[in-house]
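One such given next:

>
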Amino acid sequence: MILARREARQVPHFTLHESNTAQGLGDLRQLPVTGEEFLAAEPYGSGTAPVTTRLSDENGQRRLALAYPAEHTQLGLTLDGTGRILHETLTAPNHLVTRTFVYPEPEEDGHGHEH
């Protein structure tokens, strides 16, 4: 979890596609945010979780399950090979939130290589 948190903090910006489907299909929203802004609002922003489990990898991507029993909240995270979060599913009372993270290509964030 520490790796995903460190990687997320270093992301200058990304687009978060979010849908809260607890009451029907939900509305898909696109939110441009920084890694710091996103982590400040997440239960795992501190880098800890009372219950953590690493699930079997799929397609070269790591999967984690996190639980916060006191808040009745569970999360499933899919991470890429560098530790960036690709997908998140959050379940909490009256909420089922799915998120997809879209990171800019290296050229788009000002850190591309010139040829």
